[in-house]
Amino acid sequence: MTAEQLPAELAGWPAWTPGEAQLGELELITSGAFAPLTGYLTGADLSAVAARGELADGTPWPVPVTLTVPAGALPDVAGHLVLQDQEGSPLAVVEITERAPGDAAGTTIRIAGPVAALREPEHGPFRSMRRAPADVRQELAGAPVLALVTRRPLSHRHTGQLRYLAEQLKARILLLPLVAGPADVVRRPESLVRAVLAAARQLPPSALVVPVPLPPRAGKGEELRARVMIAASHGATHLLAEGVTTVRSEESDLEKFGVGVISPGEWAYDPVSEVWRPLGLIEPGAERGELSDGELCALLDAGASVPSWFMPAEVTAELRRARPARSERGLVVFFTGLSGSGKSTLARDLRDALLERGDRTVSLLDGDLVRRLLSAGLTFSRQDRDLNIARIGYVASEVARHGGIAICAPIAPYAAARSAVRSMVTQVGDFVLVHVSTPLAVCEQRDRKGLYAKARAGLLGSFTGISDPYEEPADADLVLDTSALSRADAVAAVLLLLRRSGWLTPAG
Fold first, then answer.
1. What residues make up the domain containing 311?
2. pLDDT tens per residue across span 157-174
3. Residue 383 belongs to domain with CATH number
4. pTM of the full predicted structure?
């Protein structure tokens, strides 16, 4: 089925909005980057990919490409599913040829079938740089092409390897930054593209940069295979295998994709010539190794200098924009605990203490206040509780995006909802989870609002701790029991954590 053949019944078909990673995968299918794939894999295809690295018909294929949707989004009789963007505008239609349980609980459905694009996607920054693989292949045709597919900013080692290998191969350089999902060092895909563009200034002018929305893969071998496939679809003849010093024997089947995978071997910085070279060309003992991502992040978090031998100054400047020092970075302090645990009181006291310092902007999102203003009309069902927490997380992440501190104090009884907020926030700032672990008996004894008494009498349903569960955090950054700590000491403990971790300057 093509877009021209879509029937008038389109408006009556069920529709669903995929997440960011799934939107990226959809774009890879419809743009031809996943050619010859034209849709989502069947169960037979998935089994063949897992067993032999090929589709059921024998076509070489390295990774699973699946679509899993909530069971409630797809009626049993539906033969099609419309995929839409975040604004609700249709992007494509899946003709459902197979459906299967997506998980053991039956809460999701995995569907397979061909995809018909309705229009080109418009979401995401640097949209003008995203190009159809066929166009890139046409531009690069006629000469060897050395590609680097990366989720990381490029250091001097990367640019040195690319120049060295491109000269040997007489090849053009193709940089393919992967912009689906968060990047560890730079956090956001647009920051990764800016950093790669900055590094490209160290390369020959003919180097081409094309962002690709490839979602993160499960394992290292699967990730390498996905990168080879993407490089091949964009016309690369060779791939510089980032972070791989040798290609293992079990990965020798990568040649079937028509791309030579180059393992550059061990490289190090030569302080004599002030360039990166293959290790064998440097006098033993004189070389320097590369900084790990963790070491680089630690330098950026502290606002310390990044060594000039490690990374071009232009790239470092982009990293500082993407990952400012913690004392300048947005932060969400998220208190969670039972009603009456003291979290609202601590949140207000923390806000006041930060306002007295005067060096950070502060916003307080208290649970009761949010319920009255942001989430008026929501019930206390699990679905509405999760929606309430998602709304709090969204507002808090926007505060963090602009460098402020957001203090949140909802009950937030469910671990999955708290995890979703952490994931949302850490794309733009930092997240600290404080569990106010005051025992239920103490909370009930305080009961200034009489809520526990009403819940015990059956007058309140879905009350956390009585008729509804509270899932204690296993990932809290700080645990405070206000039955054992004074109000002042509890706030002091939070401030101490913020100072020691660098979000507050010691002098404040």
1. 127-322
2. 899 889 988 998 999 999
3. 3.40.50.300
4. 0.85
